[in-house]
Write a structure and sequence with these properties.
Blueprint: H1 8-19, E1 23-26, E2 29-35, E3 39-50, E4 55-66, H2 79-84, H3 88-91, E5 96-97, E6 101-106, E7 110-116, H4 128-146, H5 163-169, H6 178-182, H7 190-197, H8 208-213, H9 222-233, H10 235-242, E8 247-250, E9 259-262, E10 265-268, E11 275-278, H11 281-288, H12 296-312, H13 324-343, H14 347-361
Parallel strand pairs: 5-10
Antiparallel strand pairs: 1-3, 2-3, 3-4, 4-7, 6-7, 8-11, 9-10
Helix pairs in contact: 4-12, 5-13, 11-13, 13-14
Length: about 375
């Protein structure tokens, strides 16, 4: 139970829109669903009392997002507000959509969005069949909007196509100095602090992950290291090639925790990073982000063709090479796996990251 309080007048206004009734009063309880440094999500539930005296049990979600700065994308903190008050939701198909929005407003440096609560299947409970269908529907969603640009012409608050490259470059920027890394309050493992002191890891003007991967302390097999080195060494050429792909509207956080499946309907949440991106960006995330890696080959075999099948219904992609999906997976998750290897508590956890990289290598 949360101590968060809600004004009765505000709640009644939201519930009136939700229930189609004039609400005089409502009881409520609040449960925090998700909390973070920049935003919080609450489940609000109770019984709404209509002016007629009839009672209506309800559940509704309140998302509160504070203003914050995402590098290269300064207005992402309010993007969901801008999307929910737009007309785009009306053209989304009933079976592939975002939650219904009952009320949205900006209060200073904070957005508040009251939206539909959806009870369904999400996260690792999603089956391969469900994820295959989600890949197919994302392809159809992007292809449909690609051919209907007029549906998006009034929406100005989208992220730009540089998102993927900025995400990749963050793993190359040196954020911490040698003194910060060896400090007592730094959370990196003591063994890595000692390796820094003994010059077994040499900071090379880039991120600690970048330096760790190139040291003898990192026991990731050489061929897997080289796979990431190849991305680094050919970065400019690689991104020039990616820039030739069709530009589509991407969710950009399209992973299993942001997909809720309920009786044939896919509902997508957390649209704050959405924007213009390249064909395949969302698919690379759906295949790789926090999945059961014993199913990685199966996901590649089933999700990639499903995505292409969906988008091919609206656009010709016959000349697009398929290898770029693997490259996008490495761009998004290669150094993340290196970081997980670096911070692993035991050999079993380190071996798991190696296994993940091996599967990408064999893709």
């Amino acid at each position: 139970m949360s101590n968060f309080s809600i004004e009765n007048e505000d709640l009644c206004k939201v519930l009136g829109k939700m229930l189609g009734e004039k609400i005089a009063h409502s009881s409520y309880s609040v449960t925090e669903l998700q909390g973070g440094g920049v935003g919080d999500v609450y489940l609000v539930e109770g019984t709404a009392e209509a002016a007629s005296g009839e009672g209506f049990p309800y559940k509704v979600v309140l998302k509160i997002q504070n203003k914050w700065l995402r590098p290269g994308d300064p207005d992402s903190w309010r993007r969901e507000y801008d999307l929910y008050i737009s007309d785009l939701g009306a053209v989304l198909p009933d079976h592939f959509r975002w939650p219904k929005c009952y009320h949205a407003e900006i209060k200073g440096d904070e957005i508040q969005i009251w939206m539909e609560y959806i009870e369904g299947i999400s996260g690792l409970e999603l089956t391969t069949e469900m994820l295959e269908e989600a890949a197919y529907e994302m392809g159809r969603f992007q292809g449909r909007l690609y051919n209907r640009p007029e549906l998006l012409q009034n929406l100005t608050n989208f992220g730009d196509t540089g998102f993927l490259k900025r995400h990749y470059q963050q793993w190359h920027n040196q954020e911490y100095s040698y003194d910060q890394l060896i400090a007592e309050d730094c959370p990196i493992p003591d063994s890595l602090k000692q390796a820094l002191k003994d010059s077994k890891i040499v900071m090379c003007g880039k991120s600690f992950e970048h330096s760790y991967l190139r040291s003898d302390v990192c026991i990731i097999p050489a061929h897997l290291k080289q796979m990431i080195f190849d991305i680094d060494d050919n970065m400019d050429t690689l991104f020039d090639e990616i820039a030739k792909l069709p530009i589509v509207l991407c969710h950009r956080d399209y992973w299993n925790e942001n997909i809720i499946y309920d009786n044939g309907v896919f509902c997508l949440i957390d649209w704050d990073t959405s924007g213009w991106g390249y064909l395949g960006e969302d698919l690379s995330t759906l295949i790789s982000d926090d999945i059961d890696y014993t199913k990685f080959e199966e996901f590649c075999e089933r999700l990639i063709p499903a995505y292409y099948r969906g988008i091919s219904e609206f656009m010709d992609i016959s000349g697009i090479r398929k290898k770029y999906i693997r490259e996008m997976i490495l761009i998004n998750f290669g150094y993340r796996m290196v970081q997980a290897h670096m911070f692993a508590d035991n050999d079993e956890e380190r071996a798991e990251q190696v296994q993940k990289l091996e599967k990408i290598y064999n893709m």
